[in-house]
Amino acid sequence: MSQLSPNHVHIWSTNLKLPPSAINKLSNILSSDEIYRANKFYFERDKNRFIIARGTLRKILSRYLNIEPKKLQFTYSERGKPYLQDTSILFNLSHSQDLALYAITTVNSIGIDLEYIRPMNDAEGLAKRFFSAQEYNLISQLPLQQQQEIFFKIWTCKEAYLKATGDGLAGGLEKVEVCLKPEQPIHFISINGDFQEASRWYLHQFIPESNYIAAVVVAGKNQHLSFWQTTEL
C-alpha cells in the first residue's frame, strides 16, 4: 500500500458479512464505548455490522499511523463525527446494507456517503421536501425507476458534502445543489446560494458494487483517488 500524499484519497471497501470468528477478533480491538454502542443495537445483524465497520476502521487507520488498532483514540465533534487528534490523517466512513466504505486523506476535510439502491415509492415526495426546486423538477419528470436512481445519486452527493463539513443532515440538504447534466461532469452548482463556495469542493461519484451508489467530497480541487479492498490489510 502506498503512503498518502497531498491531494490523494484512498477509498477502502469492506463486506459487513463475516463469520463469527472474524467478528470476535474485531470486537476485541474496539474501545469500551464502542462495545457499549454495539450492545445497544436490538438486532444481532446490526450489532455485527457496527462491530465489523468500526473494527475495520481501526485496522485501516492503524496502517497509516503505525499504531496498534486498539490503541487508537477517537474524538468526536458536537455532531458526532469521529476524528483523530495530533495527526494529519482525516477520514470518513459510511455503510449501507452489507457494505462499508472508508475515505482517507490528509489535510483536507472529507466526507463519503454510500446508499443501497432500494425500491422507493416516495422519491418524488422526498425530493420535494429535501432537494432544491431545480432538482425536484428533474426528478418529477422521470419514470418511477429513474426517479429512484437519480434520487440516490443526488442524495449521496449532498450527504457526503454535509459529512465533510461535519454538519450532518442538520446542515440542510436543500442548501446543497448538484448538477447532473449528462454533458457535464457531476459537480456542485451552489452551496447555500454561493457559487464560489461550491467550486471549492471536489466531488466524485462511483458504483462500488451492483445496486450501490456512493459519493466522496473533498475540500480542494485536483484530488487523486485510489481504491482498496480490506483483503489487502
Briefly characterize the structure:
The protein contains seven helices and eleven strands.
What do these coordinates show?
The protein has 233 residues and is of the alpha+beta class. The protein folds into two domains: 8-113 and 225-232, Ribosomal Protein L22, Chain A (Alpha-Beta Complex), CATH 3.90.470; 115-212, Ribosomal Protein L22, Chain A (Alpha-Beta Complex). 35% of the residues lie in helices and 27% in strands. It is built from seven helices and eleven strands. The strands form four sheets. It has a four-stranded mixed sheet with strand order 4-5-1-11, with helices on one face. A three-stranded antiparallel sheet has the order 6-10-9. A two-stranded antiparallel sheet has the order 2-3. Helix 1 (20-27) crosses helix 3 (44-65), helix 2 (32-39) runs antiparallel to helix 3 and helix 4 runs antiparallel to helix 5. The longest helix is centred in the first third of the chain and has 22 residues, at 44-65. It is globular and about 50 Å long. The mean pLDDT is 92.
Tell me the name of the CATH class of the largest domain: Alpha Beta
Q: SSE order, as H and E? A: EHHHEEEEEHHHEEHEEE
Strand content is: 25-35%
Weakly predicted, low-confidence segments:
none
What kind of oligomer do you see? single chain
Please tell me how large the radius of gyration is: 18 Å
What is the domain total for the residues?
A: 2
User: Globular, elongated, flat, extended or rod-shaped: what is the shape?
Assistant: globular
Look up the CATH topology of the largest domain: Ribosomal Protein L22, Chain A
Q: What average pLDDT do the residues reach? A: 92
Strand arrangement in the largest pleated sheet: 4-5-1-11
Share in helix: 25-40%
Q: What is the tally of helical segments?
A: 7
Second rung of CATH, namely the architecture of the largest domain: Alpha-Beta Complex
Summarize the main sheet. 4 strands, mixed
CATH homologous superfamily title of the largest domain: 4'-phosphopantetheinyl transferase domain
- What's the count of strands? 11
- Label the structural class: alpha+beta
Measure the end-to-end span.
Answer: 9 Å
